[in-house]
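quick one: adenosine monophosphate bound model?
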Amino acid sequence: MLKLWNSLTRTREAFGPINPGEVRMYSCGPTVYSMPHIGNFRSYVTWDILRRVLVANGFKVVHCMNITDVGHLVGDGDEGQDKLQMSADKEGISAWDIAKRYEKIFVDYAEVLNIKLPDSPLLCRATDHIEEQIKLIQLLEEKGFTYKTSDGIYFDTAKFPDYGKLSGQPLDEKLEGARVDVNKEKRQATDFALWKFSYPNGRSFDSAHDDAMHRRHMEWESPWGIGFPGWHVECSAMSHKYLGQPFDIHTGGVDHIPVHHENEIAQSVAAYNVPLANFWVHNDFMTVEGQKMSKSVGNVYTLDDCKAKGIEPLAIRYFFLGAHYRSKLNFTWEAAQAAQNALNNLREFSRELAIPTDQNPHESFNDEFMSELNDDLNTPAALAVVWNLVKSDVESSVKASTLLAWDKILGLDLDKYIAKPVEIPEHVKQIAQRRWEARSRQDWPAADQLRNELDSLGWNMEDGAAEFKLKPKV
Ligand code: AMP
Ligand code: ZN
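yep, here:
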């Protein structure tokens, strides 16, 4: 029985879906305006594990994730520039090209991390759903939840009595937190933009004239004037379209709790009068020296930075699994290297296993493994079970079938290694032998040159006291 920590009730609850056998899950996706860093991917690997654990529990999973390509402003209080427009100005290309560029990088990175993203149309862009967002805002307008200011249409949080329920923050504390907000036209500091105007007071395309100050690349006509949707609207509109309401699980980073998710709930519940989602699951941050890894702090690392240091994407995935998703995970190069070493060891061990005779995992080890994962996705404990199996005296072919089954959840590509001993080509063996001889007669230049040759062929040579070992480079 899967148990998940539900941020909404602040308890660990037994999970059960609304429709038997099917789980509808929504994950807040990336804002595609710059290089995603590994901190961002901690979220997406967590939801990938959750999806795989749900499948292992026999559920069909309908997973939806948005791509934010418009409307996410620099300030959480709806002030400042649109992040995509800001990057467009900086990089000298259009906001549309910025979105395309960074969405592709996100999708490529997700692939090398073995994150299975939703298939189209469930991986959905905000800019492809402007009509749905306008309709949602109209519905909120009809129900009296909106008001107009000179820069947009706003949601009146005073009209939604449950505002603040997710974060559990009393409204006065929330108002105090949002007090720094610069927009004096808002009725309450917690109110948020549903539609932002490109021109003050909302002109239409007919009446808009060229304005030297006007630089927006993404904008649409609407019943209120030319503009673009507020960031939170897309998630409410697209989850409603693809999953219905209420759905089962809503995921995101803890940073989304106080503003973005609170606002999603307010809009969706106000519009449709039923809860948005039953379970709210949030991951904590990856940190560097105790501080959140984030672009604004400037302490971010990308998968490319890791690659340059010899750390593979799947080692980063292994590193994520080594911590519980609701605790902070501090990044250091030593810790990343330790994850790479552990993964290499697991691969080496897997290679030597006997071919599995059937697909069944070892029963009691499997019970242990699944019960750790079903305990609010306790991946570090599940990895400990992996190593206990490795060290155990379980028959080699059963170890192989068990690891194969578990890798469907871990996603570490162990199938490429299990029961596949390394085959060293004859010419590689010969170069290694020549190097070993050069080394024995202390001919270091020749030994170094032959090591380089092995390196370029993709092999590492490890020198022991009496013999050498050849290992394929990862
Ligand atoms: P963004 O593209 O800024 O909207 O962020 C995308 C996702 O990455 C969000 O769900 C954030 O919660 C998450 N995120 C951002 N920084 C970190 C971090 N340092 N550790 C874990 N998750 C993060
Ligand atoms: Zn969202």
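The chain has a mean pLDDT of 93.
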